[in-house]
Amino acid sequence: MRIGDAVACGVDRIDGDRLFLYTQKTGVPVHCVLPAFVIRELEAAPKSSEGYFFWTGKSKLHSAIGKWQRRLQNLFTLAEVKGGHAHRFRDTFAVELLLAGVPHERVSVLLSHQSIRITERHYSPWVRSRQDQLEQDLRRAWSEDPVALMQTKGTPRVHRDKRAIN
To answer: What is the pTM for the complete model shown?
Structure first.
C-alpha cells in the first residue's frame, strides 16, 4: 500500500483476513491476505471515524496523508532511523515477498505496478533465485579460473601450461 491508500482505507475493505485494495495510483483492484495479528490490531486500535481506520473522511485526503507523513517522520526521528519515510514499509513488504520466493509477477500485482518492469527495476536485487544463480555462476567460473585454482589447490593443467596468463 502507498500511504495514501492506507490513509483512505475504509473499514469495509476488510473481509475476514482479506483486505480489498483499489489503489488510487493505478486503479487496479487487488485482494491482500493479512496475518491474523494485523487484523486483531486493526480491530483493537481506535479508528479515526466509523468509516476509516486512519482518516475522518471530512478533511481533504491530501491533508490527512500529510498529517500521517509528519507523524511517521517524527517516529523515524525518535527511533533514529536515518532516511526513514513511509515508502519504506512498502519496500520492506516487496523485498520480504521476493526473498520468500514470490515471483516478480505476483509482487508486481500486489504493489499495483502498471508494469512488471517497474517491479524488476526497483526490486530485482532481492530476488533470492537471482542471487542463488549469481553465486552458482561465480563458483563455476572460479572453479575453472587458472589463477583462482592456482591459489587454492592448483591443477596439472595450470602447471603444464607455461604461457603467461593475462
So the answer is: 0.68
